[in-house]
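Q: Got a minute? One more chain.
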Amino acid sequence: MIFKDISYGAHERNILDLAIPESAGRNDGMILIIHGGGWNSCDKSAHDKDVEFWSSLGFITATMNYRYVSAEIHIPDLLDDITKALGFIKERCAENGHNVEKTMLMGGSAGAHLCMMYAFTRSEEAPIKPSVIMDYCGPVDFTKPDFLIGINGQFEDYKYGVISDCVGRKITKENITSEESRKALLEYSPICFVNENTVPIILGHGKLDDIVPFNQCEQLIEKLNSFGIENELIVYENSGHALDKDPESVEKSREICRKYAERILKNKE
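A: Always. Here it is, folded:
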């Protein structure tokens, strides 16, 4: 069963796609894919092929749109959208005979950031519990200069603008070092919320990424390891942010994701 462009909320961006394969177990978990695009662009349709791929392996799979950040809409509102989407998915799956209690959150860039923020800060209220994360090139620490400026500086003005919308506070070159700005940036930096209860994380990152520098994933891994959290890194040696120069790494990340999904979502320890 495939449901396309179904509404899960009142906003025009509150739509999702959901695939429920016949081979899915009645008590299996599901995969939710959250698109990137700098928190203010792109669309779930970018993951049509991913929904097709994962559902062909027998996983209930969904991909969602969410409200874009703006002067009025900030990261907590996007996390609210994820809660609404998961609640809708749970109800629709139940109508079709599936009791879905666990999800793998999968995303790239801004989508990966939302996956981590949701799993790290909203797990208690989640209608379907985040149980594992696939993070492709997600930013984890908004305070780092090389993230805000970028490797070559070409994204600096854009990042100050969109990060201001993300956190709901005007962040500028002049006030970036203030206590108020740092506090706001840390509040939406996933690395700050890692603890002993953090779920397993798979990371895929381009070594040449000039939008979310590679050292962001290295910092996260160090924090995860300090709490003994299961994690696995796939390095895309020749790729930038698009992860488009290492086809063997694409296949490796899919295989690792499949193994985690089989183990955690289908309870095949």
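A: The chain has a mean pLDDT of 95.
Q: Perfect, thanks.
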